[in-house]
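A reminder from the course coordinator: this example appears on the midterm review sheet, so study it carefully.

Given structure:
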């Protein structure tokens, strides 16, 4: 993603704005340039607006940035969102994904993913699995099999207007050993009737990661 050239004083001016457009702009700039020095500023904005439904796009953007940079002070907010467990909600999916990224100790660790799969409805499960695909997580074979079994039993896997909940897992599988369980999972994705999911699974069978970080 192209970086935006902007001075620190301009960033600070935008961060102090009360306009949604200015705040979304500065979050994009901070994200695109990897400016983690502004995490505390973003956290304060999120804390101010997290209950404002009109600011959901801004909150979504900030949660994704803080999750990617591992800003653990945001965990209580994320926990509250996931505890509400709204079934079809982008903020909930982003919060789940951020929790998995923040609490992960390395790219083999799926403890938080498994915890959220055990309690989550559609959005929580979607976010947890997307964290695996985006970050190319490679669990142990035992954990891979357990997660696949969990998702095979999860219903519904797709609903009108939403991406298939298996997308993140299908992408993550690109880097996994292709044992019988993994092969069957990917073949199931290919034959699901969902063209987007099938495309991701085909790439993973060929050991190619797809980009779902958007």
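Designed residues:
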């Amino acid at each position: 993603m192209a970086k935006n050239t902007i001075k620190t004083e301009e960033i600070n001016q935008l961060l102090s704005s009360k306009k949604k457009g200015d705040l979304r702009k500065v979050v994009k700039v901070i994200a695109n340039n990897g400016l983690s020095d502004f995490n505390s500023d973003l956290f304060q904005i999120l804390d101010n607006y997290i209950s404002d439904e009109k600011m959901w796009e801004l909150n979504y953007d900030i949660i994704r940035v803080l999750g990617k940079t591992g800003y653990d002070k945001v965990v209580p907010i994320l926990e509250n969102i996931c505890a509400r467990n709204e079934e079809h909600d982008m903020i909930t999916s982003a919060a789940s994904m951020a929790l998995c990224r923040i609490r992960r100790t390395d790219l083999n660790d799926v403890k938080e993913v498994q915890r959220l799969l055990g309690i989550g409805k559609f959005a929580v499960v979607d976010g947890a699995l997307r964290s695996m695909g985006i970050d190319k997580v490679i669990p142990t074979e035992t954990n891979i099999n357990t997660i696949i079994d969990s998702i095979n039993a999860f219903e519904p896997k797709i609903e009108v207007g939403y991406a298939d909940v298996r997308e993140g897992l299908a992408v993550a599988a690109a880097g996994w050993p292709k044992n019988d369980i993994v092969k069957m999972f990917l073949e199931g994705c290919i034959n699901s009737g969902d063209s987007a999911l099938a495309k991701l699974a085909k790439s993973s069978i060929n050991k190619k990661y797809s980009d779902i970080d958007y």
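The chain has a mean pLDDT of 95. The radius of gyration is 18 Å.
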